[in-house]
Amino acid sequence: MPPTPSDPDNAAVEVGVKFRSDVAGVVTGIRLYKGTGNTGTHVGHLWSSAGANLGTVTFSGETASGWQQANFSTPIAVSANTTYIASYYAPNGRYSGDNGWFATQGVDNGYLHALRDGVDGGNGVYRYGTGGGFPTNSYQSSNYWVDVVFDTTVTDTTPPSVTGRTPASGATGVAPGTSVTATFSEAVQSATVIMTLASAAGSVSGTTTYDGTTRTATFTPSAALAATTTYTATVSGARDLAGNVMSPVSWSFTTGTATGLGCPCTIWPSTTTPSTVDSNDTSAVDLGVKFQSSSAGYITGLRFYKATANTGTHTGTLWSSTGTQLSSVTFTGETASGWQTMTLPSPAPSTRSSTR
C-alpha cells in the first residue's frame, strides 16, 4: 500500500511512470493504486517516449480502493530497452503520490524497470487539465503508483484498421486544394503506409506523411485536384508494431466547382499543425482571427484546431469588424484532436476585402 494512497490535490490530472523492458513483448493492461478519495472514471494510456498514444482503455468495475487493472482490447507490442510511459487520467485528483521515490533508484521486477530519475529525464510524470493527455512534467521524483501488465508470450494478431478519414466517404463539394487523411486504430510503422489517390483520368501524384502522435497518415497532392471530379483514395500496407498488415481500405469523394481561387477554401490547409498544440491554459476563453477576402462570397463554416485536452462544448461565432454577430454554430461530432469543422446554419455573405 502506498504511504500516501490519496493525495489532497483534487485537480484533474494525468499521472504516469516511465518504464523499460529488457526484452520485447506486449503490454496487455494498465494498473493503478486507488485510494478512497480517487473517484470518477479513470482512463489508462500507453505512450511512446515521443508522445504517440499507443493504447487507451477505460477502467470499469473498480473497487473502493487498492490495485485496479484495465486490459487493452488488443495487446500492444513494445520493444526491448525502449522507454514507454504508462499513465491514467484522474478526473478528481486524489491520486496516490509519494515524493522522492525515483530520486536515487528505480524499481526492478524481472524484465520490467521503472526508471530512476535522470535515466531518461524525470520520473514520475504528470499533466494537469481536463481530459488529461501525454504527461511530460515531473515533480520531486514522485511515484504515482501506475503500473503495466507485461507479457512475452501473448501474440498480437490483430491488424490495424482505418478508424477515421477525410474527406469523408461520399463527400461532395470538396475543395480542390484538399489533402487526404487516414487515422489508424493503433500505431503503425510509418514506412509501411501506402496511400494513393486516383480519378478516371489516372493516378494523382503526391507525398504521404505519417504523424505518430495522432496515428494519422496524410496524402498531399502535388497540385490542386480537378473540379467536379470523383476521386478514390486507397490506404494499404500499414503494419502495426507487431507486424500485422492492414486490409486495404478505399473510399471516394467528389470535388466542388473551381470558383475563385480554388474555393470552397480555408485559410490554413488541413495538413497544417500548430507549433503549440496545447497552451496548457485552463481558463474559459473565446479565441479568433481577423481575415479578409479578395472577392465577394460566403462564409459557410468555421474551423479550429483542437488538442486532446481541449474538452467541453465549443461554439463558433462569425463577427463583423464592429462586433455585430453574423452567425453562430455549436460544434458536434468532434474528433479527439485535429481540425474540427462545423457548417453554419446558413451561408453568411462576405463582401470583397471586408474584415471579419
Q: Total number of helical segments?
A: 0
Number of strands: 22
Distance between the termini: 58 Å
Indicate the overall shape: globular
Q: What is the CATH class of the largest domain? A: Mainly Beta
Protein model, in words:
- The protein has 356 residues and is mostly beta strands.
- The protein has 3 domains: 13-151, Jelly Rolls (Sandwich), CATH 2.60.120.820; 158-261, Immunoglobulin-like; 273-356, no CATH class.
- It has no helices and 22 strands.
- It starts with 12 loop residues before the first strand and ends in a 6-residue tail after the last strand.
Summary of the model, kept short:
This protein has no helices and 22 strands. By secondary structure, it is mainly beta.
Brief descriptors of the model:
Jelly Rolls; 356 residues; Immunoglobulin-like; mainly beta; 3 domains; single chain; four-stranded antiparallel sheet; globular; seven-stranded antiparallel sheet
Furnish the topology, listing elements before pairings:
Layout: E1 13-21, E2 25-34, E3 43-48, E4 53-58, E5 66-78, E6 84-90, E7 107-109, E8 112-114, E9 125-128, E10 146-151, E11 162-166, E12 180-184, E13 194-199, E14 202-203, E15 206-211, E16 216-221, E17 230-236, E18 249-254, E19 297-306, E20 315-319, E21 325-330, E22 338-350
Antiparallel strand pairs: 1-6, 1-8, 1-9, 2-5, 2-10, 3-4, 3-6, 7-8, 11-12, 12-16, 13-14, 13-17, 15-16, 17-18, 19-22, 20-21
